[in-house]
Amino acid sequence: MAKDLADTTQPVVPGSGRTGAATRDAVISVMLVDDHDVVRRGLRSIIESHAGWRVSCEATNGREAVAIASGCSPDVVVTDLGLPELNGLETIRRIRQEFPASEVIVFSMYETEFLVREAIAAGARGYVLKSDAARHLTEAIEAVAEHRPYFSPAIAVTIRDVLVGEGDEDRDLSPPSPPLTPREREIVQLLVEGKTNREIATTLSISAKTVETHRSTIMRKLGLKSIVDLVRYAMRNGITYP
Fold it and tell me: Using one digit for the tens of pLDDT, what is the confidence trace for 58-104?
């Protein structure tokens, strides 16, 4: 993973002047993905204060974001990680797979090393903390629109620590094991959100029996006995958030 980070995360340093007037004057289409209306309104205000920049579409959950991305063809997607129905990490993976021309910026309150690593691995080009929005979001959009990485200062420090191996020497930087399939991760999230088997079946356009089979496989694969254990697993592995 350290090698992967080294290959893909040479971040723009905030305030370094590496972003230029050419990008600020360019037409940039942005998609906003966040389940809070007030957050999206605030982001829209920041983005559309720049000439030529426009918010072309918005989504309130990850599943909706993937569905409408093709219709608005955004240059940049700004997404939270704590999304309902389909979490931010899975949303990033699917958008990058289906619409590789769209760059992704994570806009989140979470700055744990695990989530930063997973977001980058999923295909995010930038990572901005919500506490840094007004200060750094503009520079992040300018950078990723030119296909260059951008990270909030605290996130850049986290990435640096991973690269140089600082911190807890005993920590496990390998992916969670055993891995779940994308479908299994979807079902875990929906179960943790309190959906019934029938509701999950409707959401995913599969049968309730198939959901029950997946559910049994997930619990057996992870060695879990209860929904409480599943909630803990989901929170620990970035599938859902507190």
Answer: 999 999 999 999 899 999 999 999 999 999 999 999 999 999 999 99
2-164 has which CATH code?
Answer: 3.40.50.2300
**How far is Cα 223 from Cα 221, in angstroms, rounded to an integer?**
6
Q: Kindly indicate the confidence band of residue 2, based on its pLDDT and cuts at 50, 70 and 90.
A: very low
Helix (H/G/I), strand (E/B), else coil: 126: strand
Q: What is the mean pLDDT of the chain?
A: 85
Dmax over CA atoms of the chain, in Å, equals: 57
Residue spans per domain, the chain? 2-164, 182-236
Q: Catalogue the E-assigned strands of 85-152.
A: 103-108, 126-129, 150-151
Contact 178, 222 (CB under 8 A): yes
Tally DSSP H helices, then E strands, for the chain: 12, 6
Backbone angles phi, psi at 36, to 5 degrees: -110, 120
DSSP per residue, 21-59 = HHHHHS-EEEEEE-S-HHHHHHHHHHHTTSTTEEEEEEE
Architecture of the structural domain at 182-236 = Orthogonal Bundle (1.10)
Q: How confident is the model at residue 161 (pLDDT cuts 50, 70, 90)?
A: confident
Q: What is the pTM of this model?
A: 0.77
For 158-181, the DSSP string reads HHHHHHHT-S-TT---SPPSSPPP
